[in-house]
Amino acid sequence: MEQEFILRNEEESRQFAISLAKRAKKGDIYFLYGELGAGKTFFVTNFCQELGVTDYVSSPSYVLLNEYDAHEFTVFHLDLYRLGHAEELLELGITDFTDEGLVFIEWPQIAEELITQERIEIYFEIIDDHRKVRLIDRR
Ligand SMILES: Nc1ncnc2c1ncn2[C@@H]1O[C@H](COP(=O)(O)OP(=O)(O)OP(=O)(O)O)[C@@H](O)[C@H]1O
Ligand SMILES: [Mg+2]
């Protein structure tokens, strides 16, 4: 399934995240693509709020991995922008937790070969002062 949306402002981006969060299930894996500032972390923050996460959701670009408790499962939030080698992903235990909760991966290119589960891909694009998103559900 492939869909495209134009999100004209932050509120529309928030509603987009909420609509997906309402269908979230343990084991879902989101690959989030797009340039710096395109809205990947913004998406995760609003998605997590809808899931009942009360922790502050921040960009894991230095720590690589954040974990949050949602109502029904754990959320794993990765940002692989600074990751040098795919082997470091194995050290993080990535292949262990993909079934244990819901996973978001910003800058997922380096994980594409390693994570074999079917996933949901979102491509964020900056267009003038709004955003275009392409959603591809490969499950
Ligand atoms: N539809 C929209 N229109 C305009 N601005 C938006 C829209 N949606 C989100 N934004 C803004 O875009 C910015 C996105 O920043 P965010 O940190 O989410 O980017 P990112 O993709 O995670 O970047 P990075 O690659 O650095 O992690 C936020 O400041 C947010 O408020
Ligand atoms: Mg980010």
Decide which structural class fits the backbone: alpha/beta
Order of helices and strands: EHEHEEHHEEE
> C-alpha Rg, in Å?
14 Å
What is the highest CATH level, the class? Alpha Beta
CATH topology: Rossmann fold
Largest sheet: 7 strands, mixed
The first-to-last residue Cα distance is 9 Å
Brief overview, please?
Helices cover 24% and strands 32% of the residues.
Helix-strand layout with pairing:
Blueprint: E1 2-7, H1 10-21, E2 29-33, H2 40-50, E3 65-69, E4 74-79, H3 86-91, H4 94-97, E5 101-106, E6 120-127, E7 130-137
Parallel strand pairs: 2-5, 2-6, 4-5
Antiparallel strand pairs: 1-7, 3-4, 6-7
The structure holds adenosine-5'-triphosphate (ATP) and magnesium ion.
Explain what the structure shows.
The protein is α/β, with parallel strands linked by helices. The chain has a single domain (2-137), classed as P-loop containing nucleotide triphosphate hydrolases (Rossmann fold, 3-Layer(aba) Sandwich), CATH 3.40.50. The protein is 24% helix and 32% strand. It has helices at residues 10-21, 40-50, 86-91, 94-97; strands at 2-7, 29-33, 65-69, 74-79, 101-106, 120-127, 130-137. The chain has a seven-stranded mixed sheet, covered by helices on one side. β3 and β4 (74-79) form a beta hairpin. The mean pLDDT is 93. It binds adenosine-5'-triphosphate and magnesium ion. Magnesium ion binds at residues 40-41, 59, 79, 106.
Which terms summarize this structure?
single chain, 139 residues, alpha/beta, Rossmann fold, seven-stranded mixed β-sheet, 4 helices, binds adenosine-5'-triphosphate, binds magnesium ion
